[in-house]
Prior knowledge:
Elements: E1 4-9, H1 10-20, E2 25-28, H2 35-38, E3 47-50, H3 54-68, E4 72-76, H4 80-83, H5 86-95, E5 99-105, H6 121-125, E6 131-134, H7 141-153, E7 159-165, H8 166-170, E8 172-176, H9 194-206, E9 210-214, H10 216-220, H11 224-234, E10 238-240, E11 255-257, H12 265-273, E12 276-280, H13 286-289, E13 300-305, E14 319-322, H14 325-343, H15 349-361, H16 376-386, E15 392-395, H17 399-407, E16 416-417, H18 428-438, E17 444-449, H19 450-456, H20 459-465, E18 471-476, H21 481-490, H22 507-513, E19 517-521, H23 527-536, E20 542-547
Parallel strand pairs: 2-3, 2-4, 4-5, 5-7, 6-7, 9-10, 9-12, 10-11, 12-13, 13-14, 15-16, 15-17, 17-18, 18-20, 19-20
Antiparallel strand pairs: 1-8
Amino acid sequence: MARGGEKLTGAQALFRALELEGVDTVFGIPGGAILPAYDPLLESSIRHVLTRHEQGAGHAAEGYAHATGRVGVAMATSGPGGCNLVTPLADAMMDSIPLVAITGQVATAVVGNDAFQEAYMTGIAMPITKQTWMVTDANDVPRVVREAFHVASTGRPGPVLIDLPKDVLISDMRFEWQESVDLPGYRPTTRGSMKQVKAAVDLILRAERPVLYVGGGIVRSDASDELRRLAETGDLPVVTTLMGRGVFPDTHPLGLGMPGMHGNYTAVTAMQRADLLIAIGVRFDDRVTGNLAGFAPGAKVIHVDIDPAEIGKNRSVDVPIVGDARDVTAALARELAKLQEERGRPDHSAWLGTLRDWQERFPLRYRQEDGGPIKPQFVVERIYEATRGEATIVSGVGQHQMWASQFYRFTRPRQWINSGGLGTMGFAVPAALGAKVGRPDQRVVAIDGDGCFQMTAQELATSATESIPITVAILNNGYLGMVRQWQELFYGERYSQVHLTQDTPDFVKLAEAMGAVGLRAEDPGDVDAVLDKAMSITDRTVVIDFRVDPSENVFPMVPAGASNDDIILGPEGVRPVNDPAEAPVA
């Protein structure tokens, strides 16, 4: 493959550059302005997955990036095509997902004239991407592609957009490829300050009730091994945010699971009662902190993040460390081990004993009656057993997302894929397709809600025509469930525009019409048999309609704007931490 001097069109140069970046898959839909790029695709080694909607292409590229750690690529035409990528771009920005979006544009001569299918994509995407480029000279295509992948994948990962006018795609150019990138204004800090690392370790050694509070930054930097070393070196309990699920095994004795609005009691209260939070790759999101004024009131804070803008943004910090989570976590583990040899290992047995006591007294709970209805938590637990805990789980957004995170036990990074920051309904099915493309060796299960599923169900056709087999488990309660829950609890049961019905559409028939296998379970006794049948099918997508209890709510729950001390354990409204007898740590 020539790297320099070859005469190509801008469109040919685009795919040559993508190949040199190691891209193996592009998700997209052709259209007028991007059409010249689809011709050289026929000779390219890159696989193109033809989705049914550009939003599906964007989420599939996100799912690919989530599952592999590599940059996902989505391609769309100008105007409505690019605009349909806006939601995936915003989603990727919030969750730090490396994504390159390539959009066609009207010819440069008519840019700004409201030409057919014209939209100012670089302007539209600017607030929701790390950077945008509009290429006006075909000779710049290789350089821009190189810069785009560099920006998307380094520092805090995120989405970028390349806008390519039609005349640039058809113009001749001389292909020149530069391995290095020269971006003077872009210099992410990856190595943490050893002075700050030493200060952090000093706090860790003096803490009596430390908690490691870790999130998506650990996933993005592949720092799971370093995290485990740090936790085990210092006997430090670990909470994993929604974006960090799997970076520390749920089966590990030091693992406390997920904190936050629907986190478990022990994870939430451990942070409230901690005297030190070691926050790595997290951003003190409102869904974790609850009311900031009441969050972890007695805790000093060490905050490690590659994005300096996140440090101190929401919570004041005692020891800030800007750097890559893997580099800094490894340094913390080494320094901690060294100083523990000199000073001795702190005794955290009382703290760990308190946490174990909370885990025993306040576990996640639900009641599944033999006669039904099916509880959604039961379905997730049975999916865990049916997959032996080894599947890659992708969720949409809402109640089913919380139940999936709560009741599937995650043991490895990139095993859990969801839309965290933006909370994008419709994410699951296309993201699961992308994850399966990226990791064909993995069984991929999309746990979706009936509301979410109907937003992007058309991508089942993509799974059939592109031979991308996944399993879709719909927790069908006939409602926009999380909205219904809030209306029940906070709006006096005044239900407004949340009832979807469990029968329309018929998900089994819909699945079959789109080339998938459709199954249904309506009784708890059906669940295992239906899952066994679904797991036995590996060459086609399977959609399971689980008719679950429409009245079931997600607990624990911290009401929006409330303190984490006001955690509600269940429908009876128990708030144990408000009872002085139940406040084990002063």
